[in-house]
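[User]
Um, tokens okay?
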Amino acid sequence: MEALDRALHARDAEAARAADAEARVRAQQGDIEELLATVQRLEFQRERLPLGCIEWDDQWRVAQWNAMAEQIFGWSRAEAVGRLTLRDLLPESEWPAVEARIEQLLAGGGGQHHIARNTRRSGDSVLCEWFDTPLFDARGQASGVVSVVRDVTQRLDWERRLLDASNRDGLTGLPNRSCFVAALDEALSRPGEEFALLYIDLDRFKAVNDSMGHSVGDRLLQAVADRLVSIFRDQDMVGRLGGDEFAIMLGGMSDPSEAALVAGRVGEMLRRPFVIGNREILTSASIGVAMSARRHGSGEDILRDADVAMYRAKEAGRARHMLFDHRIHRQVVRRMQVEHELQRAAELAQLRLVYQPIVELGTRRVVGFESLLRWRHPTWGEVSPAEFVPIAEETGRIVSMGAWVVEEACRRLEHWRGTGGDDFYVTINISPRQLADDTLVRRIADALESHGLPPRQLGVEITETSIIEGHNVGPALSALRGLGVRLFMDDFGTGWSSLANLLQLDLDAFKIDRGFVSGGHERGEDFLRAILLLSRSIDRPAVAEGIENTEQLQTLLDLGARYGQGFLFGRPLEAGEVPMVLGKVLEPGAIPGPVDGPASMDGFAPGRDVG
């Protein structure tokens, strides 16, 4: 019985072990099936990845190769697995760099990311972004690498195009200002690097746009760019800074005289006619030249110097070049100081008007005054209008200063009417920039009304050159004519405007430039005679400017001139002195001594002398 029990117990134990073994086998089979399913899922996902997936063995032969890898490189799986090596995907020039990365990767340096130029099966190149991760066996030894690859050829091409577009001028294809300044910065940062910079501004380009249209203007800019590029060396750089401004960096140039010679040749080249469609267009350029120096901390610094020299060339008469030097640098510093101080000159009561008498030459009776702007600085003393007016014009401050002039002149007129009657007028000078201001006419109308002035007691002077250089002054002048103020063309004869201008603008009078009176023009008397004949023919009085001696006065009287002004009759008067001469006869020398120089400068026409 005992033996039977042992036998049964042994049988049951064996059955339990068999059942346990069967359970373990079933469990292992389940794990294997799950693992196979996972592998199948991974294989499925790997095949459908939008990225190339490549597994390399320890000899850098392909062990796995998915569909996207086929698409990127062109080899099928059958052609790649076990046959293709990493070197087959690389141009020979890339091998040393790649082998160094491989060595670092297999030494346990962690995953790597890089962009490489690879080779397709067709021999074409492709830019790829690689993410490499090492594989390790159970002993921790590197047994291969898994690479995930993305074709970035198109993306990088677009990025390159976008970068190139951001650095290029859309009209001419030249480097734009930001790109050009970056190149200047780079050149200045290189030790021992020397170069010259030309800053080119086309003269009167606005007239081309206004008269022929912006499409013609754009084509002219393209033609200028093509002409500039055609004459320079590979080491030079031509860029468009914006508008009608170009710049050229002359690499390796250290001699200012050589740079000036090149600038002269550029100016001569740009004076040759441009043929745009069926039109021949003549233009010229003002060119500033600056040499690289240690004082230039950035590209903007040397660009500023060249820009200043270019403006000096424009001021000297256009169609020329000028070299930046320390004298010009001092002028720039002075200009910045004047610009800064001018901002508060009116607010600080530093501005005032003086009044140049206008007389009837036959009787010497005062019939009017030209108001002239003056600035007395607390430190500098009297600042010449020839210095501050152009700065006010360029910065736009002339508009606010002009508003002050209108109000001040009308305020004084109101006072003088109460002391000396109303048989006289006062003129103010208006620049083209002021005429372009929409508030000018309303401001003058308000000032006349608030001070109770008849419009004919106020006159507005605008220079002849402002009319003939294409400024659209007609609407503003028509509005002023509608107010009833007097209209004067100033500096008549300096620009030789057409008779049509005189008639179309319906001017009250014109003022003869002092150069014809002083004898500064060859055959000046003949011109005077012609101008005065024109004055009588169109029934518009002429006022001769700059009469400084009795000989000039007698010549004018002999030619039939009726009105004039100048130092022969006295210096410009301070406001408090005006009532003393209202309606009076001014004999030569009646008002002693000029107080502000031998010739007064017109307040709103840079460079004009009013005697």
